[in-house]
Amino acid sequence: MSLLALDDVGKNFGGLVVVKNLSFTVEAGQRVALIGPNGAGKSTVFNLITGVYPLTSGRVLFDGVDITHLPMRRRIGLGVARSFQNIRLMGHLSVVENIMLGQQPKAGGLAALLTPYRLMPRHRWIEEARAALDEAGLGAYADLSVDSLPYGVRKRVDLLRAVVANPKMLLLDEPAAGLNERETEDLHDALMAIAAKGVTLVVVEHDMHFVDRLCERVVVINFGEKIAEGTMAEVRASPLVREAYLGGDATVGAGHA
Amino acid sequence: MSGYGEAILVMLAINIVVALAGYLPLAAGQLNLGIAGFMAVGGYTSAYLTSAYHLPMGVGMAAGAAAAGLLGLLVAVPVLRTSGIYLALATFALGQVIQAAFLNIEAVGAAAGYPVKPYAGFTVVLSVAFGVLVAVLLLSRTRFALLLTATKNDPLVTELFGVDVRAIRVAAFSLGALIAGIGGALYAHHYSYLEPQNFNIMLSVYIALYVLLGGTQTVAGPIVGAAFFTLLPELLRAGSHWRFVIFAVLIILVMAVRPEGLITGALARRLRFGKRREAAS
After folding, report:
1. Structurally, how many domains does chain B consist of?
2. Domain A4-79+167-256 sits in which CATH superfamily?
3. Mutate: best of B160, B164, B216, B263, partner A, most A CBs <10 A
4. Residues of B with Cβ-Cβ distance to A81 under 8 angstroms
5. Is the pLDDT of residue A26 over 70?
6. Chain A interface includes B188 (CB < 8 A)
7. What is the least distance, in Å, from the CA of A127 to any CA of chain B?
8. Chain A within 8 Å of B274 (Cβ-Cβ)?
């Protein structure tokens, strides 16, 4: 059984069809990329999987459970976590407190909510958050405001916050965007380490070299429809994919092929 | 202590309590412009129970707080469906409705006002206010406070991390209403007389200003804001009529220079860091 299955998913915003008859599956432990030209509907697919938008039609199954109508706050408990294209950290909280938000799925209940942990020396929440930061090499930033951090560091904190939630599947929206070569290399290593722990990765990314090295399988969408699926080499060979990326001018596509 | 000093301290204590009442919803990003209404519910409930049923003042105050909190809970569900300027308007209207209701309730004197017994002196007011402050400080050290800030920052992401953002908002709003009820009960029993006019919209606006000017990110914010608004007019007394002009100009200046309030989270962190470094050296 697949970990994630989209079954004939559709999404309209008013009269605008953004996702159409989309079906694909992701097996547990796989590293899958979701690629496509700008505006193809990739981020919308993430928003449908995480419940930010309701589906217009179709179903989403995760780990054998139909989560189509599950409120979004319940999905992280099942193991679906995500990072954001435009880094959405909490500007009024410190780095370590942002990481603590990632612990929330494990810290439910009224007692946990009302424990004055900040008065307790070495409370395990703070210690665990600091340990996670140290392990990621971000320990030096723990007590700083996230707004004061450089872009690359904020991006890593955003990823770590999702990892701390112990997801089964991590949805990463353009994790390499805006990173320099060195940071992209570090990100690759970090994601391989996360995958090695059994976490399934689904990545939306424009950096094809990065995708090629990280992902075993690629799903290509254009105008909200799946146009190809397979290994990077397989989808590269698809005429539909070439047309989507290079436009209707087939001679240009042929010339570069 | 002089009578004047005591009077100022009592005013400060009550203002800090109601500032904390406004702070809790604002910490989650919700402006309650009807705090005066919840104060009225707390004050009148306590006054009525102690006068008509001769209940002890402590019981009256607790009942007043509970009544205000319960009303907060009841209205939070529909009112918090709105947000931003609409939420402010809805709470504003709610405050007006409550004030108008007390203008018409004969059992508590209606427009003529309602004498209140027993009297809550300096020690009682300051003790209760101190208790409220300690409770809110404790709450600010919990995960609940973390989630309030997260909710204000980015409700969608907070929800995605498994938080029932709506429940957090309702809880903050209702707790704020409960604390406003305590403030209203203190006011009633200290000044010994209640009139619906005491709980007008200007009071609600002032309370919102205490918090916005002091800062919504730490508990110190509303305390500093309440102190600023209570003590500064007294200090400016020498300037007679001009004191209100000077006061208004000062408010505008503060908001221009520190739009996030006098006390921000970043400032609090810097102060804490300073202490830690001193301790380490």
Report:
1. 1
2. P-loop containing nucleotide triphosphate hydrolases (3.40.50.300)
3. B160
4. 160
5. yes
6. no
7. 15
8. no
Domain ranges (residues) in chain A: 4-79+167-256, 93-158
Per-residue pLDDT at B113: 93
List the domain range (segments joined by +) for residue B136: 3-200
- CA–CA separation, B24 and B68 (whole Å): 15
Closest CA to A151 of A179, A187, A185, A171: A179
Q: Is residue B261 part of a domain?
A: no
For the stretch A180-229, pLDDT in tens is 999 999 999 999 999 999 999 999 999 999 999 999 999 999 999 999 99
Helix (H, G, I), strand (E, B) or coil at B81: coil
Q: What is the interface pTM, i.e. ipTM, of the complex?
A: 0.91
Task: List Cβ neighbours of A104 (8 Å cut-off, separation of 6 or more).
Answer: A76, A165, B143, B147, B161, B162, B163
Distance from CA of B137 to the nearest CA of A (A): 9
Residue B164 in domain: yes
Cβ density class B224-252: b for 16+ within 10 Å, e for less: bbbbbbbeeeeebeeeeeebeeebeeebe
Query: Which runs of E-coded beta strand occur in chain A?
Result: 4-13, 16-26, 31-35, 57-62, 65-66, 80-82, 169-173, 200-204, 217-222, 225-230
**Does residue B278 form part of some domain?**
no
Decide if B101 is inside a domain.
Answer: yes
For the cut 70, the answer to whether the pLDDT of residue B275 exceeds it is: no
Q: Choosing among A73, A76, A147, which should be mutated to test the B contact, i.e. which has the most B CBs within 10 A?
A: A73
Which residue, among B148, B149, B157, B270, would best test binding to A if mutated, counting the most A CBs under 10 Å from its CB?
Answer: B157
* B221 touches B205 (CB < 8 A): no
Across chain B, mean pLDDT equals 92
User: Average pLDDT, whole number, for chain A?
Assistant: 92
At residue B274, the pLDDT reads 62
A101 to B217: CB separation less than 8 angstroms, yes or no? no
Residue B266 contacts A, CB cutoff 8 Å: yes
Instruction: Tell me what percent of the residues of chain A surpass a pLDDT of 90.
Output: 88
Q: Residue A249: what pLDDT?
A: 44
Residues of B in contact with A112 (CB under 8 A): 143
Say yes or no: B271 contacts chain A, CB-CB below 8 A: no
